[in-house]
Amino acid sequence: GNQSFSIVLLDGKNSGILLSSLHTREGTRVYAKPVVAGNPDGFPFTEEEKKAIAQASTGKSTAI
Length: 64
Hints:
Elements: E1 5-10, E2 16-24, E3 27-36, E4 39-40, H1 47-58
Antiparallel strand pairs: 1-2, 2-3, 3-4
């Protein structure tokens, strides 16, 4: 929804960390997932997270 986000911090090898939030009526949860060479490392990515990784990999800084 409009109150969630995904942020990706990658190095030159497209490895790093992905932070995502999920906002519900009960509260907000923030998740961290490792990224290795642009791929998940133990935790699957959502479609929103995949878009954020693709944008970070290409150097685009637009919001999704």
